[in-house]
Write a structure and sequence with these properties.
single chain, 279 residues, alpha+beta, three-stranded mixed sheet, 22% strand, rod-shaped
Length: 279
């Protein structure tokens, strides 16, 4: 009887081992589920951040294209850059407005082209990046990555020699003084670098290691890898390009016609990334 009692007492507490193992297993499963849910949530958040950032950058670029196009229209009304050949000699383009002296007309052209250059460098560069980064961080991302030149407006400047004329009155009404032109080599309007312009901007939104990851030591994980999402967007105009191309005959009236045809302006849309990591 004594031996049986001792054997019975030694069997007490064995269930505790199974309880501890079960609790540890359930705890590990619980931590894994929380970690997976956190990573899935971050992945969805990052995709939304990348989409918003890419669309924001495309909107900024579209706004810049609309402003540059409007100034192109102004330049088309100020100057006519078609070169006329006479006896094998190529004459410069011309610019004449009866109400403006040649020097004032030249200053107006320079001021307009300087404003265009500022818009192209701002809206096709730093402003688009800063706006995209701000939107991505507001959505929960830690930052964005973009290739150099991805925010470019894909425009190129035409440079030409222009004769600016004063106005004289010879009894037939206001007439350009063709004998004393102010000849200058000046930048004129912008044209598209190629027919596929403007191109899409591709943005990667990323999130650094998540400190909320449970059980790093238990699972033997020293660092959580960075996660990222990618998206692309582009400016588009449903009525066609607002700018001439390099192959077009660069006439002032043609430049104005391009703008009037597409005067509704550029908008932005999300597009496929075009790689193995699709939007």
């Amino acid at each position: 009887m004594i031996k049986k009692k001792l054997r019975y007492r030694n069997e007490k507490g064995q269930i505790i081992v199974f309880v501890v193992i079960s609790v540890l297993s359930l705890s590990m499963l619980w931590m894994m589920l929380i970690n997976i849910a956190t990573m899935v949530k971050d992945r969805i958040m990052l995709q939304n951040a990348a989409d918003c950032a890419a669309h924001t950058a495309a909107c900024i670029r579209a706004r810049g294209l609309n402003m540059v196009g409007a100034l192109n229209f102004t330049l088309g009304g100020l100057i006519e850059s078609r070169k006329v050949s006479f006896l094998g000699i190529e004459a410069p383009g011309f610019a004449w407005i009866p109400e403006l002296p040649a020097s004032a007309l030249y200053a107006s052209v320079i001021a307009t082209t300087d404003a265009q250059a500022g818009i192209v460098s701002t809206y096709g560069g730093g402003l688009a990046y800063l706006a995209a980064e701000k939107v991505a961080k507001a959505q929960g991302a830690d930052g964005i990555i973009a290739e150099p030149g991805t925010f470019s407006l894909n425009l190129k400047r035409k440079i030409d020699k222009i004769n600016f004329y004063d106005t004289i009155d010879i009894g037939l009404g206001p007439t350009p003084n063709i004998f004393c032109p102010l000849t200058k080599r000046v930048p004129t309007w912008y044209y598209l670098k190629d027919k596929k312009s403007p191109k899409k901007n591709v943005i990667i939104a990323y999130k650094n290691s998540n400190s909320r990851f449970f059980g790093k030591r238990l699972f033997g994980i020293s660092e959580i890898p960075r996660i990222a999402a990618i998206a692309a967007a582009r400016p588009f105009n449903k009525h066609g390009a607002m700018f001439p191309t390099k192959d077009d005959e660069n006439l002032g009236l043609m430049v104005m016609g391009y703008y009037l045809t597409a005067a509704d302006g550029y908008d932005a849309e999300l597009v496929p990334v075009g790689s193995l990591i699709q939007h």
